[in-house]
Amino acid sequence: MILLDFEKPIEELLEQLEKAQATHEKGKVDMTDTMEQLQGKIDQTRKNLYKNLTGWQKVQVSRHPDRPYTLDYIKGMTTNFIELHGDRNMGDDKAIVGGFASIDNQPVMILGHQKGRNTKERQYRNFGMANPEGYRKALRFMKLAEKFNRPVITLIDTPGASPGLEAEERGQGEAIAKNLMEMAVLKVPIICVVIGEGASGGALGIGVGDKIAMLENSWYSVISPENCSTILWHSWEFKEKAAEALKLTGNDMLKNGLIDKIIKEPLGGAHSDREAMFKTVKSELKRTLKELKELSTEELINQRIEKFSNMGVVQED
Amino acid sequence: MSWFKRVKDGILTKTQDKKSTPDGLWVKCPECQTPHASKDFAMEMWVCKDCGNHTRIGSDEYFEIFFDNGKFQELDANITSGDPLKFVDKKDYPTRIEAAQKKTQLKDAVRTGVGKVNGLKMVISCMDFSFIGGSMGSVVGEKIGRAIDAARKQKIPLMIISKSGGARMMEAAFSLMQMAKTSAKLALLNQDGIPFISYLTDPTTGGVTASFAMLGDFNIAEPNALIGFAGPRIVKETIGKDLPTGFQRSEFLQEHGFVDFIVERKNAKDQIHTVLSLICDKKPRVKAETAKSS
Ligand SMILES: [Zn+2]
Questions:
Q1: B126 three-class SS
Q2: Using 50, 70 and 90 to split pLDDT, how confident is the model at A27?
Q3: What is the DSSP annotation of A286-313?
């Protein structure tokens, strides 16, 4: 297991546990009690560590190399997933995946940003940074869902939209803008879940919905803490400070009325117990789908637009 | 034309104050360094006669250029910024706002006016780059949102003049959500069949480009304006190479299909009026006033 820097207190305990296990497996000494004790200690330490994670620590968990990605969730929560490809125009952006699938017996359109697990995959997925054709691919899927009256689920996990030369040539700004406008009036329910990183317009480009949820250790903001630090403090060194200032955690976002729900993660983060995580997200999706089913199309769209219209704090004399 | 004289008479003093030219008489073209008498420069609509550079101007100047006789009714003039996140970097956010207000004599980075453009009544929102880089926080989002509401209510065309470095970081996710808010409202304007002109000026980047600025029925740009999603410096760092000449400029965007046409500032008012007169009927779905030439 890969430990994050703030998880160091667990490291030694884990090593002890491993040794005990090894001894136990050799069959000479019964280490069951010691192992149980150690596991208890590990759980307690982890619980304490995870009780009050700072903004920056949550950012670290959201980027944990073992953290489940969109396709993991799709595999873990749905059946009959038929992956669809392409924007019917330019190509198939590998940083966005999606298709129709069933959640139990409910057919849905599920799509999201996709990151890669190893160097080769990361490049293949462009680190989860979509190009314009990725946003257009997502919109095509959503329009399909609208046509066949299926709810849309989007899973958000991106360090930002691709900032490359070709992205600019092909209209990154226009692609994201178009999604924001079209998603606002899409005639089927949209549920968005930030499962990892929710950076900037790249996240929002598939993030306009009726219900927005964030996983407990995900983050969502206008910019990453590192880039914020660079711009405002002229150095990467202030990323912890920037993470605090940006109020990018689920708790802050919920408090500020910018999201609707925080989904609890298993102890130690989503990667510590993937199956449990998938189960929780799935039941949350099912609950929300049921809730949104009660609304007429008109109510759905009106409430969606109302919700985003109310975001913002101004003073007026 | 009367508005032209008005440019000469009306806003000169104000402009001199704002740009604080040393003696109030000469302005250097930031592109080719040619000095212009500020009186002449205003008459040229702050476009350099030597190099054609369209220098950056603010809402005062654009309202003078577009509205007949420079006359308009300002909407939502008293909306100012809150500090929802109690944001502090090297300074706290309210201090930054106060300093910007003092420096610019503006309340925030956008103003909205309703008035006539060659006799055609319309709503114009114009961003001010001088106010914290024309950044979009809650005030900009709210005012653009209300400008869209006003255009829908009065059934008159909307134009937004964009000039922005993007989202306002000090409002973090609040500023991000202004992209969704303005785009959602534009979806309604679109459904009502009311025309929306996005007038792009130098520079328009980031969250503004990725929301209302790219959603015009007509995207119209001033020459050589920087328009993009990622800033050129970031793109350059990403690709690790120098950027091609003209990259992310108006002409580049037109070439790649994201700008309908490029217009020189001195022709903008007439051209926009012509476009609108071609699409607004006398008894239209959108009940716009018929164009009357002054
Ligand atoms: Zn010049």
A1: strand
A2: confident
A3: HHHHHHHHTS-HHHHHHHHHHHHHT---
Tell which of B13, B33, B55 closes a domain. Answer: B55
pLDDT at A309 over 60: yes
B89 falls in which pLDDT band (50, 70, 90)? confident
Same domain, A180 and A108: yes
Can you tell me the distance from the alpha carbon of B208 to that of B140, in angstroms, rounded to the nearest whole number?
A: 10
Pick the residue from chain A with its C-alpha nearest to B253.
A169
- A90-to-A141, A158, A265, B94, B243 alpha-carbon distances in Å: 15, 21, 38, 45, 23
Distance CA A200, CA B159 (A): 26
Domain assignment present for residue A209? The answer is yes
Q: Answer whether residue B287 is part of any domain.
A: no
> Do B148 and B231 belong together in one domain?
yes
Contact B181 A165 (CB under 8 A): no
Total domains in chain A come to: 2
Residue B4 sits in which domain range? 1-55
- Which tokens sit at B47? 């476009």
* Partner B contacted by A90 (CB < 8 A): no
Domain hosting residue A31, numbered range: 11-51
Number of domains in chain B: 2
Q: What does R_g of chain B's alpha carbons equal in angstroms?
A: 19
Task: Check CB contact of B77 with chain A, cutoff 8 Å.
Answer: no
Helix (H, G, I), strand (E, B) or coil at B262: strand
CATH number of the structural domain spanning residue A164:
3.90.226.10
The answer on A212 and A137 residing in a single domain is yes
Separation between Cα atoms, residue B34 and residue A141, nearest integer Å: 53
- The answer on A46 and A77 residing in a single domain is no
B286 in any annotated domain: no
The side-by-side arrangement of strands in the sheet containing B218-221 is B72-75, B110-117, B120-127, B158-164, B196-204, B218-221, B261-262
**Is B73 inside a domain boundary?**
yes
Instruction: Give the C-alpha separation, B147 to B74, whole Å.
Output: 10
Residue A177: CB partners within 8 Å, gap ≥ 6? B179, B183, B209, B210, B211, B212, B213, B214, B215
Q: Which residue has the tokens 């054709």?
A: A133
Q: Does A311 touch chain B (CB under 8 A)?
A: yes
Q: Tell me: the pLDDT tens digits for B261-285?
A: 999 999 999 999 999 999 997 554 4
What is the pLDDT confidence band of residue A203, given thresholds at 50, 70 and 90? very high
Contact B173 A165 (CB under 8 A): no
- The CATH number of whichever domain residue B153 belongs to comes to 3.90.226.10
CA–CA distance, B104 with B17 (Å, rounded to integer): 10
Report chain A residues whose CB lies below 8 A from the CB of B81: 314-315
- Quote the DSSP letter at residue B208: G
Entry pTM: 0.93
Q: Report pLDDT digits (tens) over A115-173.
A: 999 999 999 999 999 999 999 999 999 999 999 999 999 999 999 999 999 999 999 99
Q: How far is the CA of B227 from the centre of ligand 1 (A)?
A: 20
Q: What is the ipTM of this complex?
A: 0.96
Query: Of chain B residues 201-220, which have a CB less than 8 A from chain A?
Result: 206-207, 209-215
CA distance to A88, A114, A138, B183, per residue, from B144 (Å):
33, 33, 27, 10
